[in-house]
Each structure stands twice: as structure tokens, then as C-alpha cells.
Hints:
Blueprint: E1 2-7, H1 11-16, H2 19-26, E2 30-34, E3 51-55, E4 65-69, E5 75-78, E6 91-95, E7 100-105, H3 116-134, E8 139-144, H4 157-160, H5 168-178, E9 182-184, H6 185-189, E10 199-200, E11 212-213, E12 216-221, E13 228-233, E14 245-249
Parallel strand pairs: 1-2, 7-8
Antiparallel strand pairs: 1-14, 2-4, 3-4, 5-6, 6-7, 8-12, 9-12, 10-11, 13-14
Helix pairs in contact: 3-5
Amino acid sequence: MKLATWxxxxxxxxxxxxxxxxxxEIDADFFAVQETKLQAGQIELDLEGYYQYWNYAERKGYSGxxxxxxxxxxxxxxxxxxxxxxxxxxxxxxxYPAFYLVNVxxxxxxxxxxxxxxxxxxxxxxxxxxxxxxxKKPVIYCGDLNVAHQEIDVRNDxxxxxxxxxxxxxRDKMTRILNNGFIDTLRFFxxxxxxxxxxxxYMKTIRERNIGWRIDYIIVSSALEKCLESMEVHGDILGSxxxxxxxxxxxxxxxxxx
Length: 258
């Protein structure tokens, strides 16, 4: 089973820059996207063989998530609970017989940290949401989580301590998730690599020099550890200021079926 996730920073623009080429090339069972930046009816994607699930933000041209999947889910929910009004379109959860897939675009705490308190409240809700799901069946939690967890996840970590996405408070929230039954799949395969990033500023030559942050993740319940096959960060794929991330799992190792 293959899962890909990508913050496309505007899916209409990303489509013009080659999104569909990568989409068809990777041929994922599940393809999660964040920051779609559109409303219903503003794009038609002809993705033969895929079910499409969208969560649009109320604000035009802002936020939003989607999942394209070859496998019809048992249930789809938006937000932290069924029926919740989730105005920024940041969460989609697909339920399958043996696992949940949770696609998330985590709120940014803003450059001046004016949204940090709201961000930390979000993190608390997300932690309890993942814990609740995990008591029922394994969880795959993916998306742009807007935090660089460790110093090796930021090229210039010393000058970025305390900045949005690299505050102690935000990093501690990620640590709490990983200390309570979840695995950061990239660090599972590459525990010490300090040159793997998923986001780069649009400033000139920044991406070419790989001065980036790792803020896009695929995190899984510990129950899926034996199923982990490979993890890849597709830094050569352009079209957004983020790059795609993909994970392959062999669910048969846990006698799990989609």
C-alpha cells in the first residue's frame, strides 16, 4: 500500500506546474493534499479510479484539504467530530475496516506568534483525537503539521529557535504524540539524517542550496511498525514550496486488509 502527502500551496497553480504528472507517476493508493486554496466547483480533476474527498475552507483562497483514494472508505468525517463546523477545512478522516487515515493541515502560529495559543489548543485536541481513534484501530496521520520537531529538521536551527514552527511549545506537542504510541516514519528509516527537508522559502537559491525545514509528516500507530517498508521525500518534485512525501506499507505483515 502506498500513501503520498503534499502541501500543494494552491492546487490550481500546482496542477499548472505538473501536479498530475507526479500524481500518475507515483500511483498511490492514497494521495492526501493540503492548502488546496479553493471552493467547491473551482476545479475538476479527472482522476480515473479514485474517489475524491474535499474539505473546503469558508474563506476563499485559503487553507483546505483533500484526499484522493482508490479505496472507498467505510466513513468520512471532517473536523474532530461528525457534524462539527470546521471553517478552515483542515481535517479529513477516512475510516477503513483496519485503520483510520487522518489528513491534516495544522494551523500556523504566525510569524509574531499571535496564533500560538490557538495552535496549542489545536494540538491538544488533535492529541486526544488521535488517542481516541487509536483505541479502536491503527491510525495513519499525515500532512503539513507546521512544526520542525528536532534540530536536524531545520537547516539553520540555531537562528530559528523560538520562531513559528520551531517553538519549544510546538515541538513538545509533537514529542507527546510520538511518546504515546506513534511513529514518525521518516525518523524510523533515517534517524540521524540532517539534510532531509520538505519546505523551502521562495527566496532565490534557497531551495537549490537545500536551506529548508521538515514540516510534512507521515506518522503511524506503533501497531503498524512491522508494516513499514520504505519512506521517501521527493525533494526534486517542484510545483509548490513544499515537496511530496510518500510511504509504503505491507499490511499483510500484520494481517491487515484495506
